[in-house]
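Good morning,

Both structures are done.
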Amino acid sequence: MEKFYAAEAAYVAAGGFGKASYDDVAVHLDPEVVLHQAPGLPFTGTGTWRGHDGMERFLAAFSEVWESMEFLEQEHWGDDSTVVVRNRVRFRARATGRDVDALIMQLITVRDGRMLECRPFYWDPQAIADACPPPVGSRRHPAV
């Protein structure tokens, strides 16, 4: 998971879709990956993103919102098929330049060493939403 998070942070820092290679992220994801994001956040779309195409569209929307993400702390619990990850992350919003420290718990299912399903739980989703308005182009990246 640590390699996935590093690839995700590098993708966001490079500017996301059209500016960074998605390949370094994709190698850590099962082809049938499903991401379930919490509704109401500026990057969630309908909340469910499926497959490599869906994850790439999610990261494109995510990269429109965030200029950077820095993993400050991580703890992992689990086995070869299920992992719980506690992340403390500092995000910087593109639109406002505001930094937000966020605590996120993720329930992750793994298949053959790659992420199959992820359900993130944000400790304070309102702080995330307050840091940045929804991107103007967010409708270009509907979840599937």
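Second structure follows.
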Amino acid sequence: MATNLTHFEIFGLEPTFELDRNALAARYRELQREFHPDKYASKSEREQLLAIQMAAQINEAHTVLRDPVQRAAYLLKLAGVEVPPEQTTADTEFLMQQMLLRERLEEVREQPDPASALEELAVEVQGLFHNEQKQFAEVFDAGKLVEAEGSLRKQQFLVKLQSQIEELEADLFGDY
């Protein structure tokens, strides 16, 4: 296997946002078995080094492709669009929505039933994230890279909010 393949090529997948996660996982296991460094223990030092490099490349590709936000950023990178993580979205309507969602998150502790309030918020944010993933797939497949970049930025916001929801849940109700 060549070491200059894209993440998609490593797994024999088309470079598209929508992918079969089960096929990705199955191919990952196959590649792990094929390039596991232990299989190369009796080989030359060069072959051992190549196996280690391939195993690392396979692991990195799997990590990127299984995560929708990383996969979207990678697709944009392959298309020549670098998306610095520190930049924000210019969509004021989306930003206002984010402010309102964060206010609701901050107010969860004061709700009569914090568990229900947090669950409701989590479901809403998950729905927004799912819709944004669909939006990214549509605009990216249509070659609308500027819109795809905007969609990726929104996904990044939503993932951060999901993380904050999970942190509050762990804080309020413990890890379970």
